[in-house]
Write a structure and sequence with these properties.
heterodimer, A: about 150 residues, alpha/beta, Rossmann fold, five-stranded parallel sheet, 5 strands, globular, disordered C terminus, B: about 350 residues, seven-stranded parallel sheet, two-stranded antiparallel ribbon
Chain lengths: ~150, ~350
């Protein structure tokens, strides 16, 4: 009966309204068997962090094309950490200059997917990263309660 | 997902209203994790005071926008509000796209509001199997009003009436004629009917059709759950002490907030009516009967499926597909096998 689903929040921080990419990814992740919470455009870092908390997601996917990524994305990571969600996977998609990719990774973003990334690759990455994180958390908690009848 | 967790801190967190603990508890319950049963058991004594409001209706009628408006009306009244919004799971991939938050952006930043999206995960009644357990967690966390938005429904998904105290059915103009309005199903479970998008030209016709439908049925029959069956009971003649509930047909334009205040008042009026007439207790008994029964049936179903000899089933199905056997006879054959066999472990 126990059934775990990978939950992914897809949000567009900032003011650009180009949400086609975000929708394509949301749809592809749905087809990969994930539960995708789509929040739409013009989300502030506070709105994104709040939704990630309430929805208890495993992954936050941020789509951004406006160029404001350095102003917005580290803030999302910071808010997630402040509310105790340091283990949530943060992924970024959109147009990000190479020099900023390293900065975003340093700020706590796990992976930046540029234009042309296949949605299959994104789904495979998420599945692998979530499984690794689960293993790590189980290794820390050897006395996990067993299945009950 | 259920990352390493212990019962006690989680329980205390939920009762304290800690939002992270609440969110994680909901995940455990939704997943049917091992901790879910002891958690629900410990939380149950703290439930039973909230008013549960179901919002249902066809896709695209504006349910999410109405829920958003209603939540703000309740906040204006000073009451914390939880929202559970259900969207369908894909029958093919098992994934889901939960998009109800798109219409609820105005609720963000308010610590008195908690929104949770749920995928239906294979249930066909408009809710997920775990929705009523998730509601229990939210009740225990102290939310006095809980708004439950169903998946966009067609005509027959009436599970919400077994789950909520007050059911609002949202329609939009242009979806059907008077014959649609007198068909059985979703419309019958409404305590309050709403025609949203009331600025559309055919809104008056939709309202008139619904009102005609209400007047055709004496207006006094009301749905009750009896031994797991939904029944329409002729209400006793209304009296001073037991006035009948007249299902109102309200017009709203949710995107502009018009009519939302009237809907909020109607909801609170229905809540008071339920308490004053004793209907609240009756609905609560029916809800709890359902809660117990559905658990028993789920476990029995699982046990039976485990005991069904898989090979026999496949062979019988193949014969039925070839039209050598009819489905009734195949089922009887399997059942005879089950009743002859001693239960495992006996």
């Amino acid at each position: 009966m126990a059934e775990e689903k990978i939950r992914v929040l897809i949000a567009k921080p900032g003011l650009d309204g180009h949400d086609r990419g975000a929708k394509v990814v949301a749809r592809a992740l749905r087809d990969a068997g994930f539960e995708v919470i789509y929040t739409g455009i013009r989300q502030t870092p506070q709105m994104i962090a709040e939704a990630a908390l309430q929805e208890d997601v495993d992954v936050v996917g941020l789509s951004i094309l406006s160029g404001a990524h350095m102003a917005l994305i580290p803030k999302v990571v910071e808010l997630l950490r402040a509310q105790g969600q340091e283990d949530v996977l943060v992924l970024v998609g959109g147009i990000i200059p190479d020099e900023d990719v390293a900065k975003l990774r340093a700020a706590g973003v796990h992976r930046v997917f540029g234009p042309g990334t296949s949605t299959r690759e994104i789904a495979a990455y998420i599945r692998r990263a979530v499984a690794e994180r689960e293993q790590a958390s189980h290794a820390q908690q050897p006395d996990d309660p067993g299945q009950e009848g | 997902m259920a990352r390493g967790m212990e019962l006690d801190p989680l329980l205390q967190g939920v009762l304290r209203g800690d939002r992270r603990a609440l969110a994680r508890a909901i995940t455990l319950v939704e997943n049917g994790a091992p901790l879910a049963t002891p958690l629900l058991r410990a939380l149950f004594p703290r439930t039973g005071r909230a008013h549960l409001i179901g919002i249902t209706g066809p896709p695209g009628t504006g349910k999410s926008t109405l829920v958003s408006g209603l939540a703000r009306a309740y906040r204006g009244q000073g009451l914390p509000v939880a929202v559970v919004a259900v969207d369908p799971t894909s029958p093919f991939s098992g994934g889901a796209l939960l998009g109800d938050r798109v219409r609820m952006g105005k609720l963000s930043g308010d610590p008195g509001i908690f929104i949770r999206s749920m995928a239906s995960r294979g249930s066909l009644g408009g809710l997920a199997a775990a929705t009523s357990d998730v509601i229990l967690v939210l009740e225990a966390a102290g939310f006095p009003r809980i708004l439950v938005e169903t998946v966009g429904v067609g005509q027959a998904e009436v599970e919400i009436a077994r789950t909520a105290h007050t059911t609002v059915v949202v329609e939009a103009p242009g979806l059907g004629d008077e014959v649609q309005a007198i068909k059985a199903g979703v419309l019958e479970i409404a305590d309050i009917l709403v025609v949203n998008k009331a600025d559309r030209p055919s809104a008056s016709r939709a309202v008139a059709a619904l009102e005609t439908m209400l007047h055709m049925g004496q207006g006094r029959a009301h749905p009750v759950w009896h031994h797991g069956q939904l029944m329409s009971l002729e209400a006793p003649a209304p009296s001073e002490t037991d006035p009948a509930w007249e299902v109102p047909v309200l017009r709203t334009i949710a995107t502009a907030g018009e009519g939302v205040e009237a809907l909020h008042r109607a909801l609170e009026r229905h809540r008071e009516w339920l308490w004053e007439t004793g209907h609240r207790e009756r609905r609560e008994q029916a809800r709890m009967a359902r809660a117990v029964e559905s658990r028993v049936l789920a476990v029995l179903g699982r046990q039976l499926r485990q005991r069904l000899p898989g090979g026999d089933l496949a062979a019988l199905v193949a014969r039925v597909s070839r039209r050598e056997l009819d489905p009734h006879t195949a089922a009887e054959t399997l059942l005879q096998g089950l009743t002859r066999e001693p239960p495992p472990g006996a």
